[in-house]
Structure of GMP synthase [glutamine-hydrolyzing]:
Amino acid sequence: DWNMPDYITEAVEKIRAQVGTDDVILGLSGGVDSSVAAALIHRAIGDQLTCVFVDHGLLRLNEGQMVMDMFAKNLGVKVIRIDAEDQFMGHLAGVTDPEQKRKIIGREFVEVFQAESGKLVNAKWLAQGTIYPDVIESAGKGKKGQTIKSHHNVGGLPDTMKLKLLEPLRELFKDEVRKLGVALGLPHDMVYRHPFPGPGLGVRILGEVKKEYADLLRQADAIFIEELRNTPYEFVAGQAVNTEELPKNWYEATSQAFAVFLPVKSVGVMGDGRTYEYVVALRAVQTQDFMTAHWAHLPHSLLGKVSNRIINEVRGLNRVVYDISGKPPATIEWE
Ligand code: XMP
């Protein structure tokens, strides 16, 4: 149990001693770990750090802009944003198999990152937001363990680059990483966000991924998350009771929550007309370790409001369903 300012001072000194005057590159994903690693390394070596942020077009609503605002604008970190949406969509066209989609997204990610970081010829170090549980996990093998790691941690850089690894979070657990992030000035909401998978919306659009689907899903998902954040928490019979501290709102009361795009059309009515549009499913779970999970017993009033808003505000969706499957046998993601 360490004191945070002291920890930061120590970590900063260690990073400076390690890299000296060398340049460092880091793949920023918008996730908590890479964000905290970037903030810490920037605190230590300032402009010797360059972050590369690959926007694969499968991020949540306004996420790319938020990442740029937070790092480039607020913290003054050098960030190169690469808009690779067309490239990713092109490679995903016609592909429906979930693991195949993961492979393609992971492969393209590494390719885009390598091409860009290869231009930073002076970089001698590759920084990663590897945390302690990753270190342990990569020793064993989970269901998607290898895929998760190979995607997260931008593996397989070409030998010619000969980059050394800088992993300043290697000894920290997730809650410590979060506290560190807040102490480094990252916004609380960002640091306490639900986990988001590396392949992003690519595994939340069932079957073939299309930009049109991603745009619909982004809007529905943003409405769901906004309402979870804005609805005060209350105990509902049957829900898993969570933490020591009572959650303030339903976002905090759930471990992961998101919308899933179903490429299925169903009939609806609007005014005098008949509609024939797509369906989204809402998924919200409570879990300690993500290995098993309960579906969250969200208040019906909250679900009703989210459903109304999605159907009224998102042209192209006319039906919302709620996923009441536990893990096991269902997984948290639908793919
Ligand atoms: P499942 O769906 O297996 O998810 O119950 C368990 C946790 O893992 C996340 N997940 C992934 N994370 N790349 C990632 O970085 C992936 O391919 C991937 N698949 C699932 C999921 O969001 C949940 O937190």
About this structure: Residues 102, 144, 147-148, 151-152, 195, 197-199, 256, 290, 327, 331-333 surround xanthosine-5'-monophosphate (CB under 6 Å). The first strand starts at residue 23 and ends at 28.
